[in-house]
Design brief:
heterodimer; B: alpha+beta; six-stranded mixed beta barrel; about 55% helix
């Protein structure tokens, strides 16, 4: 089951995707495009509709971006169900969200951008959800890929946060000392940066 | 049944008085305000008891509901299908449902069954020894081969405390119960070696990667459980069968669905039997029995309190109003008429108390439900839950409404009869 506080960071993350990625050209994926431009709607029925259309879009196109955004939609719905004390739907939707988020990565093992999106989600979740171990594995792989300096800094920040969430405090301190580019983030997911939109989201949406 | 009968009788009598003896009803009602303090204290006592009934009733309704859902959604399902010899043999490999894939297809394409099914998954049970050679640890395990996608719903209350759920893409990756993972000192992405005795009696071995660690809250289960994708489990065990089929429904109409499923099995001459979740959940039955017993005891105490409060208030009323009663008798009122007047007073107090119980109970419940009540773990479980007061059950409202009225009505009978038997000459004893 998911506690009320656990999914709030997800909302911040999803909102920040929308805010910063509004400029992304995503005409190939109308549902993803719609979310990028207009945000996930707060109304439960509309949220369910757009989430369902994201899944249909994934089924139709096979584009992993649609699947990732579908996962975000499911997690948003889980957050809504937590807010109305509907623990059953909250648990089901959260698990479904994480299931498809994992499936998006595992179905595209060699695409580091999908892995980046998962790490971006998992790193800022509450520690009790236990996703930090996945973030540590993801960031370890991501750091072996060649990125520009700004993206590498983000990955380092995610790794540092994951080390903290996994209660590996000594390793976190060492990592902070070694990686001069790490800027420790707060508990909430930071807003998406321009370099993330152009290097991660836009290429995925365009299917490159 | 007798409760409904008693309530109907009381209501019929009150209705009769309101229609045909309106002056009597008005007289009795207005009399309540002659001794406001006494009436208020009696009503408050009834309301206190009524609120206790409403809150505890709502609390155990929620507790039953969450325990039921917790039972169903930890890989039990609403309905389970077994081979007919499943409960006759300890060797579960000999009681497998052989043709699972076609059975699943047939059930999911049957329009009378499919419309109610939310998730369906085969489950292959097996046991063996699991080792983490790097830590030089081994342990006995109880394996559950399940389908990853339906397991999202069927195992929704298995809390993942590290890593992920099972995957359709990574069939060699498994999840372990928190106790078993602790015994093995195994962590996310560790490799584990599993040895089993397969369905043919031979040995099977496989290396599996730990994908996640879960906690169902049931310690005995978490200490031995390993979840593995069904296809992998079938490969290790050398079978395409399953031990049972779990079905999660869209609704709580288990009995009609079971009847249709049994009919389907009979029509197709399948060697299968069907059980519902309650039959296989001894723990739920025990908790339900215990909480229901406590609830009955609380209702009994409240009923006794109401009987004594009403009886006491009415008796004092009669003593203080002896002159009035005897004057009424002297004016020609029949004893039955006097009885009715006093009895109606008791019924009206009961009704006001019942109404107050519902209003106050609902208000308190709304207040409590803002953040819920943190409950400690139940016996045999490792983590608690947040309880709420469930206020959607009509039976709860019915009980809270009926109990004060019935007890007040019954408690008023004796003092009312006593009033009617007062001697007219007693009036002269009072100055």
């Amino acid at each position: 089951m998911i506690q009320r506080s656990n999914l709030l960071p997800i909302i911040c993350l999803c909102l920040s995707v929308v805010t910063s990625a509004g400029a992304a050209n995503a005409s190939a994926l109308p549902a993803v495009d719609s979310v990028l431009q207009h945000d996930f709607p707060p109304q439960p029925a509309a949220l369910a509709r757009i989430t369902e259309s994201l899944f249909q879009e994934y089924t139709r196109t096979g584009n992993a971006a649609s699947l990732v955004f579908y996962s975000y939609g499911m997690l948003q719905q889980a957050n809504y169900f937590v807010s109305v004390n509907d623990v059953i739907h909250a648990a089901e939707y959260a698990r479904t969200g994480f299931f498809y988020l994992d499936e998006a990565v595992e179905g595209h093992e060699n695409d580091p951008r999908i892995r980046y999106l998962r790490a971006r989600m998992d790193a800022y979740l509450p520690a009790e959800l236990g996703r930090c171990v996945i973030t540590l594995a993801d960031t370890e792989r991501l750091l072996k890929t060649k990125w520009d300096r700004a993206i590498t800094a983000h990955i380092n920040a995610m790794r540092y946060k994951a080390l903290q969430n996994c209660h590996q405090d000594e390793q976190a301190r060492q990592f902070l000392a070694q990686s001069k580019t790490v800027k420790p983030a707060g508990d909430d997911s930071p807003a998406w940066r321009h370099e993330e939109v152009t290097n991660i989201i836009q290429p995925l949406v365009k299917g490159h | 049944m007798w409760v409904e009968g008693a309530v109907s009788l009381i209501m019929a009598l009150v209705l009769y008085c309101l229609i045909f003896r309106f002056r009597d009803a008005t007289f009795s009602f207005v009399n309540l305000f002659r001794h406001r303090r006494r009436t208020l204290s009696t009503v408050l006592a009834i309301v206190s008891g009524g609120v206790a009934i409403f809150l505890y009733g709502g609390f155990i309704d929620y507790s039953f509901w969450i325990l039921k859902e917790q039972t169903i959604r930890t890989n039990i399902g609403h309905v389970q299908i077994y081979h007919q010899s499943y409960f006759d043999t300890a060797n579960k490999s000999k009681s497998l449902i052989k043709n699972y894939a076609s059975l699943k297809h047939d059930i999911l394409t049957d329009p009378t069954l499919a419309k109610d099914i939310s998730a369906l998954s085969g489950q292959l049970e097996f046991t063996g020894v699991i080792s983490q050679y790097e830590n030089e640890t081994s342990s006995y395990f109880s394996g559950l081969g399940i389908e990853p996608l339906p397991a999202i719903k069927l195992g929704a209350f298995d809390k993942i405390i590290s890593g992920s759920d099972l995957s359709r893409i990574k069939p060699e990756e498994v999840t372990l119960g928190s106790g078993l993972a602790g015994t093995l000192n195994a962590h996310y992405a560790d490799w584990l070696d599993v040895i089993v005795v397969n369905t043919a009696g031979g040995q099977g071995a496989i290396s599996l990667k730990l994908r996640g660690i879960f906690a169902s809250g049931i310690k005995d289960y978490d200490d031995v459980a390993m979840k593995i994708p069904l296809k992998t489990a079938q490969r290790i065990m050398g079978t395409d069968g399953v031990s049972k089929v779990l079905i999660l429904l869209n609704n709580d109409d288990v009995e009609p669905f079971m009847a249709r499923l049994k009919q389907y099995i009979a029509d197709n001459h399948l060697p299968l039997i069907v059980k519902d979740w309650k039959e296989t959940s001894l723990f739920y039955q025990q908790v339900e029995g215990m909480l229901s017993g406590i609830y009955f005891f609380i209702k009994l105490i409240v009923a006794i309190i109401v009987v004594f409060m009403i009886g006491n208030a009415m008796t004092m009323n009669i003593i203080e109003r002896t002159r009035e009663v005897t004057t009424l008798r002297a004016m020609g009122l029949k004893p039955w008429h006097v009885t009715r007047l006093f009895w109606l007073e008791g019924v009206f107090i009961g009704m006001i108390g019942a109404l107050g119980s519902l209003i106050a109970g609902y208000a308190f419940a709304a207040l409590i439900n803002i953040s819920g009540i943190a409950m400690p773990p139940s016996p045999g479980q490792s983590f608690g839950y947040t309880a709420f007061i469930k206020t959607t059950d009509p039976e709860l409202f019915w009980t809270t409404w009926v109990l004060p009225i019935i007890t007040a009505s019954l408690a008023s009978i004796l003092p009312a009869v006593r009033a009617s038997r007062l001697n007219i000459a007693d009036a002269f004893k009072f100055s």
